Amino acid sequence: MTETPTEQGTGRPPRTAIVTGGARGIGAAIARRLAADGLRVAVVDLREEQAAETAKGIEDDGGRAVAIGADVADAAAVETAVARVVDELGAPTVLVNNAGILRDNLLFKMSDDDWDAVLGVHLRGAFLMTRAVQRHQVEARWGRVVNLSSTSALGNRGQANYSAAKAGMQGFTKTLAIELGPFGVTANAIAPGFVATDMVRETAARVGMGFEEFCELAAQEIPVRRVGQPEDIAALASFLCSKEAGFVSGQVVYAAGGPRA
Asked: Which residue pairs from 43-46 have beta carbons closer than 8 angstroms and sit at least 24 positions apart in sequence?
């Protein structure tokens, strides 16, 4: 395995990124894109064996990656995961908080556990990961945090837990931008609209529709007349994690094929 000698021809050692929920979908696409940009990438997911598939693909393409299994809602697991990243790839200065789950239901049917699980993975997970990584960013006087929100932050039937979590991610992002900005760290959020992922495939199955039909119906309501792909979100994350994005911070970008907010 030949290691990338410098970051994008700058003469500096490659930066290290952590992508949570990186085993599939948007997270995997972002991990692959950041690796193609010249970063070392830690693919963090609840199931290490699934994260390993993404990491192997990156290495097969000539990048450097490691798969780490961790529950991002568990403080001890997060500290252990970040320590492993430091040991195996170097101190992380780029963090993408993408890990998320769905536990959809109407409010009167939603259980305490379904509420707690969604808020735990999305919000507590982003808090714990960012708290662990920011010390390395502050020491380096440079960093990028990208949080995955959603158009559901604007409200969505049957997703009181998910909508609350994704709206919370936006406030969290703006506060990070204020607190970490003096140390050369930016924080931004991406709010995807309808993106064709395995999670959406599961949603289609749950409502009794075929995946293609589900996507076609969604595309009719999107101004650009297509659904998003994970690579669309990865391209935006690539910019927000780049050196060129240093004057963009505290922003929420709706990547939804048309205006949302």
From this structure: 43/19, 43/67, 43/68, 44/18, 44/19, 44/20, 44/68, 44/69, 44/70, 44/72, 44/81, 44/99, 45/20, 45/21, 45/69, 45/70, 45/99, 46/70, 46/71, 46/72, 46/99
Return the SS3 of 32. helix
Q: How far apart are CA 119 and CA 122, in angstroms?
A: 5
| Active-site residue identified among 162, 194, 214, 254 | 162
SS3 (DSSP) at 177: helix
pLDDT per residue over 206-255, tens digit each?
889 999 999 999 999 999 999 999 999 999 999 999 999 999 999 999 99
CA distance 9 to 187: 25
Distance (Å, whole) CA 33 – CA 209: 31
198 SS3 class: helix
- 162 catalytic per annotation: yes
Give burial (CB, 10 Å; 0-12/13-18/19+) of 87: exposed
β-pairing verdict for 40-45 and 16-20: parallel
Distance CA(10)–CA(19), nearest Å, equals: 23
Q: How many helices (H) and strands (E) does the chain have?
A: 9, 7
Q: Which of 147, 229, 237 is nearest to 194 (CA)?
A: 229
Rg (CA), the chain: 18
pLDDT at 74 over 80: yes
Q: Where are the alpha helices (DSSP H) in 155-242?
A: 160-180, 198-206, 211-219, 230-240
Task: Name the token pair of 99.
Answer: 């890990």
